[in-house]
Amino acid sequence: MTPAPRRREGDCEMLAVEDALTRVYTNVKMSFYKKIFSRFETRDSTLSAVETFSVEVIHALGTPTINEFARFVNISQANATYKVQSLIEKGYVVKKRSTRDRREYRLSVTDKFHQYNRVSQGYIHELVTRMQERFSPEELEQLTHMLTVMAEELMPDVIPWPKAD
Asked: Measured in Å, how far apart are the chain's first and last C-alpha atoms?
């Protein structure tokens, strides 16, 4: 029988941080999903779950090429082209010829995506408003600092965000 791993000092605190971060992330996702599912009743939603993820990745990457999008999500270029073409047909993405290299096309999201994206951003804004009512400016400054470090330094394997000023 393998003995249980020994607890190190700080393990309980780290589990509490992990639990709190998981709960916040889950609550934000659930708020978004709840609003998206309510759109299905009014037939206002035209994106599948995979299409939603795809357009969100394109948005987060900035203006990727189809190849850059394919590499990021680890799918074939043919599969990526199919997904992108569907998003173009539905009006969520456009292809624009690169100004630097006329042979390549850059993907960008449309106003239709930005309207769709406001659903998730609305809850983030609501949450920030609640935080301003609950926390002191110093606490909010510390939280902002910690979240910025997380995004810029602790998660470099996801998206290389530009450094905040």
From this structure: 53
Q: Which amino acid is at 74?
A: N
Asked if residues 79 and 71 have their Cβ atoms less than 8 Å apart, the reply is: no
Nearest CA-CA partner of 56 in 2, 99, 4, 92? 92
- What region, left, alpha or beta, does residue 98 occupy, with left being phi > 0 and alpha being psi -120 to 50 degrees? beta
Give 122's contacts (C-beta < 8 A, 6+ positions apart): 35
**Could you give the 3-state DSSP secondary structure of residue 51?**
helix
* Helices 137-149, 111-134: crossing angle, 10 deg rounding: 130
Conformational region of residue 137, where left means phi above 0, alpha means psi within -120 to 50, and beta covers everything else: alpha
Q: Which of 155, 113, 124 is nearest to 27 (CA)?
A: 124
State the pTM of this model: 0.74
Q: What is the CATH number of domain 35-125?
A: 1.10.10.10
Condensed to tens digits (0 to 9), the pLDDT of residues 10-44 reads: 678 888 889 999 999 898 888 877 877 776 555 44
Return the bridge partners of 109, or none: 93
